[in-house]
Specification:
The protein is α+β, with helices and mostly antiparallel strands. The relative contact order is 0.22. Helix 1 packs antiparallel against helix 2. It has a six-stranded mixed β-sheet. A hairpin with a 3-residue loop joins strand 4 and strand 5. It has one domain: Beta Polymerase, domain 2.
Length: 137
């Protein structure tokens, strides 16, 4: 009896990429800025992608986190954990294959994940992303 082939990791990776891009678009729709999607697959086995975004207030960071989580649940993607929601200086939402980092400006500058993951490949997630770049000075 012939076995059916297992689902390739490529299709899983494509689905993960689609989900992280949807999260980036959702952050942008809710006024997040300086939004980066990083492909870290060749750098770590912990996760495949990181999304990094900045919000201007606790309420906005909450809204981004809530809307991202709502959208992912609609896609059948459920968070494994969330940290920092009450303080809202750095909200981390772990979906396993990707991790969402939502920062206030001061905390993002302090931790500087872009430099920490400087060897990661940046994913072009939206043609319009340039309008959201450069606000972080």
């Amino acid at each position: 009896m012939e076995k059916e082939p297992l689902t390739s990791s490529r299709s899983t990776s494509e689905q993960t990429r689609k989900h992280v891009i949807l999260c980036a678009q959702t952050a942008a729709e809710h006024r997040g800025y300086d939004i980066l999607v990083l492909d870290v697959r060749r750098l770590t086995d912990i996760t495949d992608y990181l999304l990094i975004a900045t919000g201007t207030s606790r309420r906005q960071i909450h809204t981004m986190a809530d809307e991202i989580d709502r959208l992912m649940e609609e896609q059948g993607e459920y968070k494994l954990g969330i940290e920092g929601y009450d303080e809202s200086r750095w909200v981390l939402i772990d979906y396993g294959d990707f991790v969402v980092h939502l920062f206030d400006l001061q905390t993002r500058k302090y931790y500087d994940l872009e430099s920490l993951w400087g060897d990661a490949t940046r994913i072009e997630w939206d043609e319009q992303q340039q309008q959201f770049q450069g606000r972080r000075k």
